[in-house]
Design goal:
It is a single chain. The chain has a single domain, classed as F1F0 ATP synthase subunit C (F1FO ATP Synthase), CATH 1.20.20. The chain is 86% helix and 0% strand. The chain contains three helices and no strands. Helix 1 packs antiparallel against helix 2 (39-75) and helix 2 runs antiparallel to helix 3 (80-110).
Length: 112
């Protein structure tokens, strides 16, 4: 269980760093100087951090939900219909939080 948490943490950190670097690259492509931080570059960095951190919680939640559902199915295969229905509903709620983070990141990137 410890290795699973460690691997989930490393995947999450890698995702956050990827999104952060994507924001920095987008800021440089958009015309910001490579040595100075401009308002436009900081806006892209803020959007990248928002999406990275906002997607981390739902990703962990969905992974835990799927794992626990598989454990429950292994223990009680007759209850597959009820377990699957509840799992899909809970995953949809967790995914909605990630979509909220995406909307905020898009607002930061294009509106503000």
């Amino acid at each position: 269980m410890k290795t699973v948490r460690r691997s989930l943490a490393s995947v999450g950190i890698t995702g956050v760093l990827f999104l952060l670097m994507t924001g920095v690259v987008a800021a440089q492509v958009a015309g910001a100087a490579s040595n100075e931080f401009s308002a436009k570059g900081m806006k892209y960095i803020a959007a990248a951090i928002t999406m990275g951190v906002g997607a981390l919680g739902p990703a962990l939640g969905i992974g835990m939900l799927g794992g626990k559902a598989m454990d429950a199915l292994g223990r009680n295969p007759e209850a597959a219909g009820a377990i699957q229905t509840n799992m899909i509903l809970a995953i949809a709620f967790a995914e909605a939080i990630g979509i909220y983070a995406l909307v905020v990141a898009i607002l930061i990137g294009f509106v503000f």
